[in-house]
Amino acid sequence: MKVTVFWGCKILTSQYAYEMSVRRVLPELGVELVDLREMHCCGDVVKSVNAFAAKYMAARVLALAGETGIKELLVPCSRCHFTLSETQHLLRSDTNLREKVFALLKDEKLEYPSDVRIWHIIDLLYDAMGLSRIKEKVKKSLKGLKFSAHVGCQIIRPSIIGRVDNPENPRKLNELIRALGAESPDYPEKLDCCGSALTFSHQEAAFTLAGSKLKAIQEMGVDGLIDSCPSCHEMFDAKQEEASKIIGKKLSLPVLYYTQLLGLALGMKMEDLGLHLNQSPVEKLIEKSGVHS
Amino acid sequence: MSLTDLMSMAKPNSEMRERTLAKIGKREFADCFQCAKCTSGCTAFKLLELKPHEVMRLVNLGFTGELISSEISWTCVTCLKCMERCPQQASPYYVIMALRNLTIEQGGKVPEAYLNAVSQILETGFMQAVQKVTAKNMETLDRQKLGLPNIKNSAKTFKATFLKALEEREV
Questions:
Q1: The pLDDT of residue A89 is above 90
Q2: Which of A37, A174, A286, B59 has the fewest Cβ atoms surrounding its Cβ within 10 A?
Q3: Domain B3-105 is classified in which CATH homologous superfamily?
Q4: How far is B112 from chain A (nearest CA, A)?
């Protein structure tokens, strides 16, 4: 399977571990990754300033993807995934919007493709690859370990535009964790938001959200938290210490991208998966797992 | 200022109602029947007192100016739960985003981080500058040292069309 990849700002400019692990694990499962000829923001942050300009940016990304002739577009960031899916959905029915957006694209000799399929890591692995292919590839089972899943908000809602998993009871990330031999118990705070978007306006509330969720998960006694969005990951991993201070509770929870966890189970090296970049205490989990002993 | 204080002196403004309606296009927010399912599940309700059903009602009555002054639209975490759960497909999320856009158009108070992000996009194409990161062993690393390919910057024409798009208002 061949896919173009739209990485988005967060991954390309700071969340390098996600990009590294995606670039490692997907080819191992038979997915060929092709970069777009240009990279820029999807428009997500622009929505708050000018909703039309945001849609233009998203349409431009889809036009760049269409240029490659590849119909499958992988978008590993949940926020970018929503922005692109939303614009694609609106452009199908809103003729007025279509006219305005297409005119701007024409200025740059770009053409909007009607038939690009947008994937996220979670559905690409679960639906296109399948659990059995992943299970076959596991070299080091993660048996004996327990992980909570953080699905995030924007890949599962709103279902009306077609999303990656069930909006109220998402299961795919749990199943993907179990495919590696580990356990993935449910918990009451599963659908709680990481708070990332509030870092633009209400920092303390943002870290309260992240910290409260981390605290609840830590108290469950699991070995770590697994996520699949650079914004969520930044909150739970890089900002864990800050969140800890805000909620007044010591937090020490390993947080990994699913693609990093998958890479460990596929027998890959820590450095190749960017695990040396995680700020949360991933060492204790890797030690316990025995994958590198 | 709190929305409750603002409302004690408020007058409805039908022109603002129409402008907000125009912004959210065909989305039928007028169908909201105040079930408050959005508010009961709202992430920002617990922490920042955002009540999406109240926002819906006030916009529908033309109190957009009061909503803008209250700065309440910037408390939304964009979790999209209200959009998913609304029995009328009325989507408070889009109304809140429209309020943010109107705040900008009217020169209201906007969190600086949003404006910085847009400036950054105009400059580099991305909402934030490319960062160096520190590994666990305190080594400073960048894309190149991590073996990641160079970023392919957007064409020069992108900036011009993006600026043109930013001039566009009602959609």
A1: yes
A2: A37
A3: Alpha-helical ferredoxin (1.10.1060.10)
A4: 8
